[in-house]
Amino acid sequence: ACSRVRRWELSRPILRLRPGPRVRRIFARANMQIITTVAEMRTFTRDVQARGRSLALVPTMGALHEGHLSLVRHAKKQCDVVVVSIFVNPTQFDSREDLMRYPRDLEKDLEVLRPFKVDAVFAPRAEEMYSEQFSVSVEPGEIAKPHEGASRPGHFRGVATVVLKLFNIVRPNIAYFGQKDFQQVLVVRRLVEDLDLDVRFVILPIVRDADGLAISSRNVLLSAEERKA
Ligand code: PAF
């Protein structure tokens, strides 16, 4: 099935990920490479492959927290080179309001990643990932219909599509996902198996806050009352 990316989804406010001079300085200090284009990312991967080294991808939408960091820790242990992608994917949001509300702070994310010495962060702009002509999407099928799929129509189509794109661009040997997003994990597993993707994917347990709530990027938006509920 195909669906077009609506124009608002590619509008200005979601393009804030373009790194400025300060962010580039943070990267220089952290010894991480910042990669914002598909072409640069491919060159990076080709170089890693040519050196016979294994490559891990930790796909994220930023607002990094302990859940993401546990994925990064595992990736560092299991692979020679680690790439973290930070991309707030517009096609998995079903409303403009939700997309705009999603927390974004690339500078803070880079600071959080600094001690982990990841090799590269792939932070493309929306228009780098979705051209004006973009029209082909992955239809994830039955697994995506109940639960979150029912309350957020099109959400898992957007997830499956961007994950396939990220796998194709980064070409990791292993990709890391959190069990917190359980239905997403099932969708990605079908994607990998049904489309014969040459990537191993590792699922790691939920990381919880002291109050027992699963740590999530969106939970920074919750009030104390909402956290209790
Ligand atoms: O779980 C997420 O953060 C996102 O759904 C993912 C897998 C990075 C795709 O945008």
Please provide a brief summary of the model.
By secondary structure, the chain is α/β, with parallel strands linked by helices.
Question: What does this protein structure show overall?
Answer:
By secondary structure, the chain is an alpha/beta fold. The N and C termini lie far apart (38 Å). Strands 1-4-3-2-5-6 form a six-stranded parallel β-sheet, with helices on both faces. The protein has ten helices and six strands. β2 (55-60), α3 (66-78) and β3 form a beta-alpha-beta unit. The relative contact order is 0.18.
Strand order of the largest sheet: 1-4-3-2-5-6
- Give the strand content: 5-15%
Helix content: 40-55%
User: What ligand species are in this complex?
Assistant: pantoate
Number of strands: 6
Helix/strand structural class: alpha/beta
User: Uncertain runs with pLDDT below 50, 5 residues or more?
Assistant: 1-16
Distance between the termini: 38 Å
Tell me about the largest β-sheet.
6 strands, parallel
Which sequence of SSEs, written as H and E, runs from N to C? HEHEHEHHEHHHEHEH
| Average pLDDT score | 88
Shape: globular
Query: What's the helix count?
Result: 10
